[in-house]
Amino acid sequence: DTAVSQTPKYLVTQMGNDKSIKCEQNLGHDTMYWYKQDSKKFLKIMFSYNNKELIINETVPNRFSPKSPDKAHLNLHINSLELGDSAVYFCASSQDPAGGNEQFFGPGTRLTVL
Amino acid sequence: QKEVEQNSGPLSVPEGAIASLNCTYSDRGSQSFFWYRQYSGKSPELIMFIYSNGDKEDGRFTAQLNKASQYVSLLIRDSQPSDSATYLCAVKRSGAGSYQLTFGKGTKLSVIP
Predict the structure, then answer these.
(1) Which residues in chain B have Cβ-Cβ distances shorter than 8 Å to A49?
(2) Which of A70, A26, A77 is nearest to A50 (CA)?
(3) A64-75 pLDDT tens trace
(4) CA of B96, closest CA in chain A: separation in Å?
(5) Taking CA atoms, which of A15, B9, B46, B62 is between 20 and 30 Å from B32?
(6) Terminal-to-terminal C-alpha distance of chain A
(7) Which class for B60: exposed (0-12), middle (13-18), buried (19 or more C-beta within 10 A)?
(8) What tens digit of pLDDT does each residue of B52-81 get?
């Protein structure tokens, strides 16, 4: 069974559109994350939720809005998509945000904005 | 600004050799150190973590940490072509209020058969 899953795997869309990416983990973890990996492979944290509460909110345009309906799900909605939003977006989860626990990554969503 | 620096490579080593990957970090409050491997088009996967100064060995992999020098490294012995990937160093503070992993830009390793 997939531990951290994301949908869709690929997303191609026009500038100005609004899109969502969904993430689910079946590991029973308390904490979930969204990362953005750009074309140079730099992996940067965007958001983190612990038990549905936002604990990390990096400097990200407010066009990006995360939502956690429960601790097993963390979705990312992006409004008014721009060319620079093209990247691979990874969801991850871990048991404890403050400890040294491993983060498990989903397969990624490759977003292409045309 | 908390930073994690890695040589982007590519680092090329012949099959069977030792590959040495290096990472330096700027935040002296960092307590946990991780090495992730990322194959092209795939997601990162954890291969090693280290918390204490010194060496930690796991099979062909050895992580080395020197907190005084703010330096962490990963040695891969008997390198195999299947080790060809990008290796991401990540560091983390621990304790309340310190939740995030900070990643380096990764070192691309190529093991030549």
Answers:
(1) none
(2) A70
(3) 999 999 989 999
(4) 6
(5) B9
(6) 34
(7) middle
(8) 999 999 999 999 999 999 999 999 999 999
